[in-house]
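Lab notebook: predicted structure, single chain.

Context: the supervisor wants predicted structures on file for every construct in the current expression panel, including those that have not yet been purified. This is the next one on the list. No modifications to the sequence; it matches the entry in the shared construct table.
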Amino acid sequence: MPGIDYRMFQGEPGGAVYPGDNAGSGPIVYYGTDDIDASLAKVRELGGQADEKQPIPGVGWFAGVTDPEGNHWSFFQSDESVPAPSA
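Prediction complete. Output recorded below exactly as produced.
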């Protein structure tokens, strides 16, 4: 994506490296889901906090979450049809 230093690597598991606001807080673990909207709704239902999903054009969706005990992770849903944001 233009303007974002985001570097993906493929493998099992895959991953990415990018500058973040929480540098030094450790890695972010991404859990795969087939339905990110339902997964985010379940986190909220169980008392956690969930960000709105964000697009990765041509790759899928991701969203950060925090459980009620303060643990952070993210969800990822593969979806190659995700369009690039309009300028």
